[in-house]
Amino acid sequence: MNHDHDHDHAPANFNRAFAIGIALNLAFVGIEAFYGWRVNSLALLADAGHNLSDVAGLVLAWGGALAIRLVPDARHTYGWKRATILAAFANALLLLVAMGGLAWEAIGRLWSNEVSLQEQGVTIMLVAGVGIVINTATALLFMRGREHDLNIRGAFLHMAADALVSAGVVVAGALTLWQGWTWLDPVVSLAIAVVILWGTWDLFKQSLHMLFDGVPAHIDPQAVHDCLAALPGVTQVHDLHIWAMGTAHVALTAHLVMPRDQADDAFLNAATKLMHDRFEITHVTLQVVKVPFTPSCVPAPDKDKPTQAKSCPV
After folding, report:
1. How confident is the model at residue 43 (pLDDT cuts 50, 70, 90)?
2. Residue ranges of the domains in the chain?
């Protein structure tokens, strides 16, 4: 049996990035809310609410990142890595609720023909321009970690998208000032809600899938099975399980049926390295058996499906 806990791949420390990002966005929420109320701009008030949810999202992501570093104990043998999945799910749920409320308010304003003052255009442009700077700066704080941690990648993509949304608000303000299109404010708010809802839905589905121990989207379980089945001496891969312990940590357990019991430490280490290098699976537990003695929890793979065994040498 082999256990690999991947202690050499500790997550980078983003405490400073989270602290700066939260402080910048919290200050910007105050600015947007004040001027949105002052000029009666739904676009600014909506974006203030969205940025407040961003602050909550950053706090949740920071909590998840800190939880990863908690040492496992006898009662929590995998540690607290799943906190990053919970953070992603809570962040997605928060955004869905906030943007649903925004869309409802924007539709209500359009239906009632309520318009905003044309003079708000300059204020909208200036405040949203500040938002472009703040959101871009916050996104850059997480740029270096986006390739290796889904939690950090989510923070980066979220802030980068917000910079684009703020740019859209600037355009709306300019057109309101130039053409007098006062109806554009709720329309832009509705467009912002639709774009964010569209992007958030995938995050919601992925995080919910991972909460129920689903195989992470970037891993093909059939390919994993085929790689293990191609190992020398393996006649069957039995009771294969793949799940996410956290947004950056994946676990695997499997029984390798080897009638001649040819496995030694070199074989198991090579198999573990193969799973890590090819699929980024960080915690691998393999049990070698001569005959399967437990019922499998998952159906047998489709034998008619093309395999990738030849591409997975040890």
Report:
1. low
2. 13-211, 221-311
CA distances from 298 to 221, 242, 251 (A): 11, 11, 16
CB 44 within 8 Å of CB 36: yes
Give tens-digit pLDDT for 297-306. Answer: 666 555 444 4
Here the tokens at position 203 are 């995050």
Non-local (6+) Cβ contacts of 9 within 8 A are 282
Which residue in this structure is represented by tokens 């059939």?
Answer: 222
Nearest to 226 by CA among 302, 312, 100: 312
pLDDT score for 273: 94
C-alpha span between 12 and 115 (Å, rounded): 48
Query: What distances in angstroms separate CA 14 from CA 28, 143, 191, 288, one per listed residue?
Result: 21, 11, 32, 40
Which helix (H) or strand (E) element contains residue 240?
A: strand 236-246
Nearest to 312 by CA among 284, 279, 287: 279
Distance separating the N- and C-terminal Cα atoms of the chain: 17
Reply yes or no on domain 13-211 having CATH 1.20.1510.10: yes
Alpha helices by DSSP H, listed for the chain, are 15-39, 42-68, 83-111, 120-141, 150-179, 184-211, 221-229, 265-279
CATH number 3.20.20.70 is the correct assignment for the domain at 221-311: no
Tracing tokens 């703040």 back to the chain, one arrives at 134
Q: Are 197 and 191 in contact (CB under 8 A)?
A: no
Per-residue pLDDT tens over the stretch 196-254: 788 778 878 888 999 999 999 889 999 999 999 999 999 999 889 999 988 778 999 99
